[in-house]
Amino acid sequence: MDFLHTLFYFILAIGVLVSFHEFGHFWVARKSGVKVLRFSVGFGKTLWSWRKDEESTEYVLSAIPLGGYVKMVDEREGEVKSADLPFAFNRQSLLTRTAIVAAGPIFNLVLAVFLFWSVLVIGESGIKPILGAVEQGTLAAAAGFAEGEEIISVNDKLTPTWTEAMSVIIASALDGEQEIKVDVKSFDDRESIKTIKVSENDIGSPEILYERLGFKPWSPKLKPIIGKVLPDSAASLAALQQGDLIISADGVDINDWSQWVDYVKTHPGVPIKLVIERNGVRLPLVITPKSITVEQKTEGKIGASVYVPEELINSVSVVYSLSPLAAIPVALQTTWYYSSVTLKMMGKMLIGKASVENLSGPISIAQYAGQSASLGLVHFLKFMALVSVSLGVINLLPVPVLDGGHLLFFAIEGIKGSPVSEKIQIFFQQVGIALLISLMALAMVLDVQRLFY
């Protein structure tokens, strides 16, 4: 079920993003008077097609949902009927051809603005960015952060949720900023500004950077009361129920949930004698935590969550939303921000200042799609917005085969006054194909490594 869930939302996300990209090419081409022969979502074997008549555009759904294409009348791709020559792509003005090619990635960026706007209007829920204990030797400790402080903004960008605050801090560091300004508020509502100083040695993958930063969300001490119990789990087999209070484990008094979690982790596959309190009555139970592997270490897990009082949830939760009008400039700013971060990150990988482990292939993207969909509509829309930004930026890169490569040839044509020779274009397109295949192969290898390590 998890696989089908992930696959469904991956195909849905990629299908929407690719369709919108190709629709950009298609719409501008049609508005410019260019005849479009085929509009395809996906590559490979045709699964479904429809055409009104012989002179109309054929709409196609193909088997491999990792791209798409718009086929226009073009003398460079085959013989064109004399009646269609005025509508051929290659016979259009330089400005028209540029607009048609640029429309795809521009439509992706426009879609990203709309998706970010939707997230802002619907409202994003999460936990407040309140800091837990700050470990010594981390960047957070060096900047003077303290437990209980709430992050208000990062580099003047509002960060109402923990996820948003961490995303902006990490993106700013990966963007090459050596000093990140963080506005914080203490428990007594006093505001102050902390500066995180980042060096190149601190920057690797986002995961490594997060560890170096040393930020942890604030976690209050909770009573060891069982919340949700998963089916077929160790807790379920031991007949633990929601509301059970754990009194002791193997004769050791359990005072809070963290202590209980640590005890379970150190007893994988080992029976634990419990004393619990249920409805005011103390009962003995035996539970055997299941063994799981986490970062090459074996730990115990019982498959039950802690009970969190509703008033505590409300005190640390936040829903951030804007009016439809106020959300427009923020959505534009957010799209611009992530576009610049994406571009700079690719530049750093190109010159070796950022790890290629930051690359994500189709497996990772599929996993992110499934995970974000599981968290709700807003998270899925935000995931799609980020991928749409990446598609827009990547396709504008001056790499032959990509839209940006065609735009580069058009720019050269505008400067020299005549098109780049077909022989030169074919050569650089072959180079571009080789680069893209190499990059995709590397991303796939990294994806597989993430699955097994």
Proportion of beta-strand residues: 15-25%
Q: How would you spell out the order of helices and strands?
A: HEEHEHEEHEEHEHEEHEEEEEHEHHHHH
How large, in whole angstroms, is the Cα Rg?
A: 27 Å
* N- and C-termini, Cα separation: 23 Å
Could you give the order of strands across the largest sheet?
Answer: 5-4-6-7
Describe this structure in words.
The chain is of the alpha+beta class. It has helices at 2-31, 94-122, 139-142, 162-174, 206-213, 234-237, 257-265, 310-316, 324-350, 362-375, 377-395, 403-416, 422-452, and strands at residues 36-50, 58-72, 124-127, 150-154, 157-158, 179-185, 191-197, 226-229, 245-249, 252-253, 272-278, 281-287, 290-294, 297-301, 304-306, 317-320. It has a 4-stranded antiparallel sheet with strand order 5-4-6-7. The protein has a 4-stranded antiparallel sheet with strand order 10-9-11-12. A hairpin with a 2-residue loop joins strand 4 (150-154) and strand 5 (157-158). Helix 1 crosses helix 2 (94-122). The longest helix is centred in the C-terminal third of the chain and has 31 residues, at 422-452.
